[in-house]
Structure formats: structure tokens, C-alpha cells
TrEMBL record:
<keyword id="KW-0813">Transport</keyword>
<dbReference type="InterPro" id="IPR017871">
    <property type="entry name" value="ABC_transporter-like_CS"/>
</dbReference>
<protein>
    <submittedName>
        <fullName>Phosphonate transport system ATP-binding protein</fullName>
    </submittedName>
</protein>
<dbReference type="InterPro" id="IPR027417">
    <property type="entry name" value="P-loop_NTPase"/>
</dbReference>
<feature type="region of interest" description="Disordered">
    <location>
        <begin position="274"/>
        <end position="304"/>
    </location>
</feature>
<feature type="domain" description="ABC transporter">
    <location>
        <begin position="24"/>
        <end position="268"/>
    </location>
</feature>
<keyword id="KW-0472">Membrane</keyword>
<keyword id="KW-1278">Translocase</keyword>
<dbReference type="GO" id="GO:0005524">
    <property type="term" value="F:ATP binding"/>
</dbReference>
<dbReference type="InterPro" id="IPR003593">
    <property type="entry name" value="AAA+_ATPase"/>
</dbReference>
<keyword id="KW-0547">Nucleotide-binding</keyword>
<dbReference type="InterPro" id="IPR012693">
    <property type="entry name" value="ABC_transpr_PhnC"/>
</dbReference>
<keyword id="KW-0067">ATP-binding</keyword>
<dbReference type="InterPro" id="IPR050086">
    <property type="entry name" value="MetN_ABC_transporter-like"/>
</dbReference>
<dbReference type="Pfam" id="PF00005">
    <property type="entry name" value="ABC_tran"/>
</dbReference>
<dbReference type="InterPro" id="IPR003439">
    <property type="entry name" value="ABC_transporter-like_ATP-bd"/>
</dbReference>
<keyword id="KW-1003">Cell membrane</keyword>
Length: 304
């Protein structure tokens, strides 16, 4: 079962309004992996279009599980995941593929093909929109190669186009991975610990680049990070997870590293989302957490 009958669904018109504000919505999402492990435990989040959100939490707190629900690699045991106006678990294969094309993903390990050139790796990002595999660079249409060069220029690596990908530094490889993701023209970018393998300087460079791209392209970015200060500098909003539950949901403005770090403390039962909810309620336009579709609908209604 993937839908709880107790979740009130908003009307079509209100849902459309919610979709115009939130690219990604999780509505009472629970993922039960069995054996008493809840990967996600009643998670309610709405991610605003164009916003940058960072997931913080100890290893095993559910960050990857949350990201995997957003690109449809996991389906919830109960609750609803809605991405770019589509209920992920209601889609046919071809529809899911179409939504996934709008979702770029970057990983801690970059996932480049090392022996291939930088440019070929970037071209591969366009494969979703081309038929059949391309084995060599010349098999990509000229327009794709030109666009890939433009993307490389955008991430500052045009001069490395014909170099083997595995000869680049980690920071450069992540830039190539970003350029590859941009070939999809994504509306949402998921980044699973994108700088965990990088030195602090390269990490900040990659984060700055993501921030710039998000602003320029109105790209919704959802990233997991382990560095609290970097997260605060990067994101508009920090979401803290612990054992699959959202225990902190705050805008970064005015949030100190010390406050954000509390999610790592051993104090159980801490939940600052009530406070966040109150604040969001007071400034409806700034609402970040949609407790349910119906509540989000009410809030959206109140902004008009
Ligand atoms: N496919 C799976 N089958 C069973 N349990 C899983 C599966 N995927 C994740 N889990 C469990 O769900 C919980 C959340 O894992 P998840 O990988 O989302 O954590 P994380 O916060 O991303 O950790 P890390 O920072 O180490 O990447 C963990 O207890 C993990 O063991």
C-alpha cells in the first residue's frame, strides 16, 4: 500500500497552486525497511522551487533514503511523494522516466567514466533525450557536443574537455558531474554528499558553483552534507534528520552552527519543528514545511 486513506488530498485547483510553489512535496512519508528499521518516519516537507535545502544528520538518519524517494528509486510504505506536479507512485514507466529526466543527480563519488574524456562524460548527460548508446565522442550530434562544451565552460573547465576524466582532481571531477547533470536541463538537482570526498577549499568551490547555478536557473537543490557551517552558508534552509524523522527545519538566516549542530547531540526527543511551524505560520509566504496536502493548501490559500 502506498497511499494512506487518512491523508486528505487537496482539490485539483489548490494542488496546482501548491505545485507552482513546491517542486517537491513529501506528505506523511514513511519507509519501513523491515526488521524494525524506519528509513523515513512520517516525513512532511515541501521544497520550494528555486530553493536550496540541505539535509543534515548522522550516518543512517535517512538522508539518502529521502533523496531516493524524490527520484523514484524508493517508493514509500505509506504517504505520498509528489515531484514537479506528479505523484511518483502513480506514474507509468515512461512517465516516471520523463520526470526523472527533470531531476539531475550528483554523487559523492562523481560517477564519471574515468577513461573517457571529460567532454564525452558531459555528452552522456544528454543520453536520456537521445536514442541508443553513443560509444565515441563523434557519435554524439554536433549540437550536443557544442552544448556540452558550453556546460563545461559554465563550470570553468572548457580547457579540460579532451582530457581523460580520471586525470582531474576531485573538485574538477565533481564540476564535470555537474556539467553532465546540466545537460538534462534539470528542474530539481539532488546532491548526495557532493563534497564529502573533497578538501575544504574544493568543497567550498563546488558549493559556490551549485549556489550560482541554482540562482541562475531557478533550480531546486536538495543536498545532503556533513559540514554544518558549509550547509548554513550554502542553503536557504536546513532540515535535520534523526532515525528517519525531521527533528529540525529552519531557514538558515539567523541560524547558528551551534544550533544546527544540536541535531547530532545525543538528547533524544528534541524537535524544533514545532517552533519552525509556528514561525512559518506567522509568515505564510515563507512557509517551508507542508504538514499535509490539506494544510499546505490552506496556507497557499492564505497567501492569495
Ligand atoms: N535498501 C535498504 N534496505 C534496508 N535498510 C535500508 C536500506 N536503505 C537504507 N536502509 C536503512 O535506513 C536507514 C537510513 O539510511 P540512509 O542511507 O538513508 O542514511 P543516511 O543518512 O543517508 O546515511 P549516510 O550519511 O551514511 O549516507 C539506515 O538505518 C539504513 O541502514
Amino acid at each position: 500500500m502506498t497511499h494512506s486513506h487518512t491523508i486528505p488530498h487537496p482539490t485539483t485547483e489548490l494542488q496546482r497552486e501548491i505545485d507552482s510553489i513546491y517542486s517537491v512535496q513529501l506528505d506523511h512519508v514513511t519507509k519501513d525497511f523491515g526488521g524494525g528499521v524506519l528509513g523515513l518516519d512520517d516525513v512532511n516537507l515541501g521544497f520550494r522551487t528555486g530553493g536550496i535545502s540541505v539535509l543534515l544528520g548522522l550516518s543512517g538518519s535517512g538522508k539518502s533514503t529521502l533523496l531516493r524517494h524524490i527520484n523514484g528509486l524508493h517508493t514509500p510504505t505509506s504517504g505520498r511523494v509528489r515531484v514537479l506536479g506528479q505523484d511518483m507512485d502513480r506514474l507509468r514507466r515512461s512517465e516516471l522516466k520523463a520526470v526523472r529526466r527533470d531531476i539531475g543527480v550528483i554523487f559523492q563519488s562523481f560517477n564519471l567514466v574515468g577513461p573517457m574524456s571529460v567532454l564525452e562524460n558531459v555528452c552522456a548527460g544528454a543520453l536520456g533525450s537521445l536514442r541508443g548508446p553513443r560509444i565515441t565522442l563523434m557519435m554524439y550530434p554536433k549540437a550536443i557536443r557544442r552544448e556540452a562544451l558550453e556546460k563545461l565552460d559554465r563550470v570553468g573547465l572548457a580547457d579540460r574537455a579532451y582530457q581523460r576524466a580520471d586525470t582531474l582532481s576531485g573538485g574538477q571531477q565533481q564540476r564535470v558531474a555537474i556539467a553532465r547533470a546540466l545537460m538534462q536541463h534539470p528542474k530539481v538537482l539532488l546532491a548526495d554528499e557532493p563534497v564529502a570526498s573533497l578538501d575544504p577549499v574544493s568543497a567550498r568551490d563546488v558549493i559556490d558553483l551549485l549556489r550560482q547555478i541554482s540562482a541562475e536557473d531557478d533550480l531546486t537543490v536538495i543536498a545532503s552534507l556533513h559540514q554544518v557551517q558549509l550547509a548554513i552558508d550554502f542553503a536557504d534552509r536546513i532540515i535535520g534528520l534523526r532515525t528517519g524523522r525531521v527533528v529540525l527545519d529552519r531557514k538558515t538566516a539567523g541560524l547558528s552552527a551551534e544550533e544546527a549542530s544540536q541535531i547530532y547531540s545525543s538528547v533524544s526527543g528534541m524537535d524544533t519543528t514545532a517552533e519552525a511551524g509556528e514561525r512559518a505560520g506567522a509568515t505564510t509566504a515563507g512557509t517551508q514545511t507542508a504538514k499535509s496536502g490539506a494544510e499546505a493548501a490552506a496556507r497557499v490559500g492564505a497567501t492569495r
